[in-house]
Design goal:
The complex is a heterodimer of chains A (112) and B (884). Chain A is of the alpha+beta class and 112 residues long. In chain A, 54% of the residues lie in helices and 18% in strands. In chain A, the strands form two sheets. Chain A has a three-stranded antiparallel β-sheet. Chain A has a two-stranded parallel sheet with strand order 1-3. In chain B, the strands form three sheets. In chain B, strands 1, 2, 3, 4, 5, 6, 7, 8, 9, 10 and 11 form an eleven-stranded mixed β-sheet that branches. The chains are: A alpha+beta (112), B alpha+beta (884).
Chain lengths: 112, 884
Amino acid sequence: MNQAQILPGNLDLLILKAVSLGPLHGYGVLLRIEQISNGALNIEQGALYPALYRLVRQGLLKANWGTSDNNRRAKFYELTAAGRKRLRQEETDWNRLVTAIGSALAARPEET
Amino acid sequence: MKLLAAIRNLFFALFRRAQSENEMREELLAHLKDRADDLVRSGLTRAAAERRARIEFGASEKFKEEIREATGANFFNTLLQDVRFGFRILRKSPGFTAVAILTLALGIGANTAIFSYVDAWLIKPLPYPQADRLMVFLTHDKQRGWTGNNISAADLQDFQKQNSAFDTTVGWWSTNFNLTSDGPPVLVEAGQVSWNFFDVLGVKPIHGRTFSADDDRSGAGHVVIISEGLWRDRFASDPGIINRSVRIDDELYTVIGVMPGTFQFTLMGIANMWTPLALTDQQLANRGTEWLSAFGRLKPGATQQQAGAEGATIFSRLEKEYPKTNTNLTLLFSSMTAEVGKNEGVPQVMICFWIVGLILLIACANVANLMMARATRRSREFVVRRTLGAGKGRLIRQLLAESLVLFFFGGIAGTLFGAWGMHWIQTSIPDKIRGYLVNFGEVKLDFVTLSFTLALTMGCAIIFGLAPALEGSRFDLSSTLKETSSQSTGSRGGGRLRRILVGAEIALAVIVLISTTLLVRSFILSVSSNAGFNSANLTIAQLDLPKTRYAHPADMRNFNDAVIARLRTLPQVVSVGAASGVPFGGYGQIVVIAAVGKPPQKSGEELGARMSSVSADYLATMQMQLLQGRAINSSDGPNAPPSVVISETLAKLFWANENPVGQKLQFGADKNIATVVGVVKDIKMYNLRSRPERQLYVPFSQFPTPTMGFVVRTQGKAPAIAAGVRDEIWSVDRDQPMSSVEQLDNLMAITDTGNRMLTKLMVFFGLLATFLGAIGIYGLISQMVSQRIHEIGIRVALGASPRQVMRMVLREGLKLALIGITLGVLLSLAVTRSLAFALYGVQPTDLVTFVGVPALFTMVAIAACYIPAQRAMRVDPMVALRYE
């Protein structure tokens, strides 16, 4: 399988994005990321949790205990207002970066 | 916000620790189950699915640690864990723990004890309200650069009237009173003071009142305030003491107050009675004699600078008005705290303070070194822990916690040792000099000292715990595990840091040892130096004859002759003499001298000399060495031509190239002229370290004085002699008290107390530094041998002889020791100069010390390396190579 490795900073962005679509428990976050990235990203599953705890501590996510689809007690994460704001900001930054790098890579020799 | 978060975290850590830990576990477990369920659905067996889920999840312990890290709630949690772990580790290696705690206890204890004196004498304010507003008056001779603490009554009065910085000023001087009522006559240390003395200081009596302005008028009724101690000892704490009459110097005084036992005015020394100065008009008009000491309390808002400016202005006015007495004279002010400090053993305390500071550094370097040695041994433990997911920061924190625990116990043991040291110093202070020490030389293990100790301990724990902590966390994961044995070679980087620590430690120990050796050598030289007389088996009785009963010279002569005759009859007495100034007692008086027939000195540049009126047998009784001519003897009667015996230094001053015997010397305010009949060696009058001074002796019969000291030389020790002398003097005059009856040896020892105590401490500190330095180098070399057992085994297997092995180890140790010693010697050359003021007979760069100490230390280093070297020598290659 041809998967791209994720940089630590980008994992936070992906988690925020995944959670923005509705409250999720940890495993759910993983599945959601796989789903929205069409399985193109490789996430070390355990690494998800330190990132989630960090985001909670930063006040970008909040966590509540609830019951999952298969009737297990699970911790659900959802975005806070600050988290939503951060996500918007990061999305803008990311898009700007991608555009910039994309146009840089698209440059042809004679144009320089 | 941060504080709130911290409090929340603390709460979290203490009460919800277990809960959060469980929740985290549950969450991760739920993830694994969910994943396994999905995998089962995709066709795997349950067991395979669970296994697969765990593999996909990754190193769960590492992530848990990261989560704990991320939540921050971890801090207190891990701190507690670390401290507990620290305890366990320390318990597991009792030898290491004992050495480390003992080392720290000695270092911290010495600092605690010395600091308690620094605090009491330099930091704590004097025990008066707003003591920083109290200013001592100093007169300053602008031309000669002399500063004295005495002022004439007239000058003080003028300053008081014209200045605006002080409401009132206080004059005082020390004296002694003969107390003859309510028991045998005693001489009581006393002060004559301005009426407002107690009020300006801000102290209150426990009974009665302080003086009023009316008490302080010449001709007012005699009143006296006594100390609580005198009230208790002499008057049996009589509740009716106020208004009682007591007989002082043959006059009746009314007791009006009792000062508490805690009251102390150290500038005056011990005082148990105070009377008003009650200056006469004649005294008030006298501008020539500077005899009063003075101080004042600054008005609210007034500053020391303002007082200084006024002093300069007023005294320049007086200078113009009274050129004869006041030329070049001006007035300066110094805070009372600073002036009291000068009287204490402050320089000695500061020397000790620096030395113990160095010793603490040595002790800490030692412990850091031991901890690093242990960290090296525990490298595998650290690597395993890191592999299991412990962060670098986590390891550093844990090692720091270990050192905190270690230093904490070191601090407790050090405080106990320090308290013992304080007790030892306190009990070593002779009672006679306590009166001059703040709080009578007593110190307490109080809040300030304890805070100092705590801060010092924790500061050192963090600074010196950091090196081993960094060292411990430094181990590289792969390389250490790959090195099947941690013994094959020492880790180079850590080894270097340890070498630097031990080298620095040795350098510091050498500085301490050189400094202490210089001070101890000074002491030995000073006590073994020739004082100019033989103090063995010599008893001195000092007294002052009251003017009321001994008004005429003939009265004094008769008393003197009668006492000498009585003392001769005592058993064991070999010889008896008397002098107005005896060494380490009366000191005599300083008179202006001039040689008759030589050009006179310019005004203002007169020469002084110490004069003593002596009885016929005094010089012989003291066993002073006669260099030329004869001593004062019985031919020098009251009517014989005046004669004088001079000291060597005085003889050289005037008659360096002539025979002094037969020359005429003029001396004193009365311009007496006497013929020089003999020359004696200089003697030391008040201090074993005093420089040679000009001295002269005149016959008591021709120049009688009311102050005198009787010297009695006995055959061997005579324990009963003091009582015998006292009884014989009372048999001549039963109302005559003695200020002291004491062996001259004791008087000399008391004078030298500061240096004696400093020397004892220095011997101890010197030994301590050497001991710690030796432990340091022993620890390092011993560790080196353990680490290189493998290598040594190979060397032996390849044919190295035990001798070669031993030489290799010794060389290693010696190389380091020599670098440290050289560094220490070079640094000592730079710092010992500041000790010069405390040295006697040795230069700060004394060759014997600067050669002897390094040589001694080299031998100590060799001895310290010898034990591990022996161990290396006995290495069995078979065992060493098989040993992992």
